[in-house]
Design brief:
single chain; transmembrane helix; mainly alpha; AbrB_fam; AbrB family transcriptional regulator; AbrB_dup; 344 residues; membrane
Length: 344
């Protein structure tokens, strides 16, 4: 267990990094700033984030995201379900395309390359890789690099290019803050997260509170919104957690793998952005929201980006929730099909 001064120093540096970028009006400033500051600190001294920090941040993030699902918004997202399903399947299928590039660049076997390339969550893909007897360490590193690339590129680009809050059918009015109601929701959300965690679901600390807030918001019984400072604090916790992974040993011990992860993530991001643009045009839906919804980043990070930029949060979250479910259902069978067909 690290000395108490290590997590305190890490938290202070992460908050300072987030605050500096916030002053510069960088999109998703608190998370990106915290991540970069923590990563920089990790190259010179040990860093540590308390085990409870990220789950606590995800609880309030889940409540904040779920609170955007008013009745009409939930109806609009449900009506877009065919597009959500199509986007999820297409995003997963791109794993076959990018896997060949990743395998060639990283020098891994084809099966490991497949789990490295599919845009699923880090935890989900590591679990599926373990079941398929692929290299879990390689998959974890590659998936982490992909999330880092997306977090560092998508928020600034969409923040500068996309209009904010322009998609009324996917926007709900902000609820007032009532602290007793907020604390009650947080406690109930935690209780819901525990069984989800035992079931092995990825991101249970976000999904439990988010599901509760969606139910309350859609039925008109949401007792409180989530204050902006709490969302900012959640960003810092998530950014610092990502930053601790970017240690010197992590990046330099597997230099070839890190380069392969960055390049394949860039190719995957461009490919999915173009596909999202085409789907948005065909379905008459907001292009920025679909680009973010199909972005190959983690669900918490991309949903938080949508909230920070006011880019149809429920729609973006719907895409990533759908992809998470589809990853659990389809990636294993797709892997077996690819092996039998000689594609992997």
């Amino acid at each position: 267990m690290p000395p108490i001064r290590t997590p305190l120093l890490t938290a202070a540096v992460a908050a300072l990094g987030g605050g500096l970028l916030a002053l510069l009006h960088v999109p998703l400033a608190w998370m990106i700033g915290a991540m970069m500051a923590t990563a920089g600190l990790s190259w010179h001294r040990p860093v540590a984030v308390p085990a409870w920090a990220r789950p606590a941040g995800l609880v309030f993030l889940g409540l904040g995201l779920g609170g955007t699902f008013s009745g009409p918004v939930l109806t609009a997202v449900t009506g877009a379900l065919p597009v959500l399903l199509a986007g999820g399947v297409i995003a997963i299928a791109t794993g076959f395309v990018v896997a060949r590039l990743f395998t060639r660049l990283a020098g891994t076997d084809a099966q490991t390359g497949f789990f490295c390339a599919v845009p699923g969550g880090v935890i989900v893909m590591a679990m599926l890789a373990q079941e398929a007897k692929a290299s879990v360490a390689t998959v974890t590193l590659a998936q982490t690099m992909r999330v880092l690339v997306v977090v560092l590129t998508f928020p600034p680009l969409l923040g500068w290019l996309a209009p904010h809050g322009a998609f009324n059918e996917f926007m709900a009015p902000r609820a007032e803050i009532w602290w007793p109601g907020l604390l009650g929701m947080a406690a109930a959300g935690l209780l819901l997260a525990v069984p989800l965690r035992r079931l092995g679901l990825a991101n249970p600390w976000m999904l439990g509170p988010c599901g509760l807030a969606i139910l309350l918001a859609a039925t008109g019984h949401l007792p409180s919104g989530v204050p902006v400072p709490l969302i900012d604090a959640a960003q810092v916790a998530m950014g610092a957690s990502l930053g601790t992974r970017m240690s010197k040993s992590f990046l330099l011990s597997s230099h070839r793998l890190a380069v392969a992860g960055v390049l394949s993530a860039a190719v995957l991001s461009i490919l999915l952005a173009l596909i999202a643009w085409a789907i948005a045009a065909a379905a008459d839906m907001p292009v920025p929201a679909l680009i973010l919804g199909m972005a190959p980043g983690g669900m918490p990070e991309m949903a938080l980006t949508a909230k920070a930029l006011e880019l149809a949060v429920p729609l973006v979250l719907g895409f990533h929730l759908t992809r998470t479910v589809l990853c659990n259902l389809l990636v294993g069978p797709l892997h077996k099909f690819g092996v039998r067909a000689g594609l992997l």
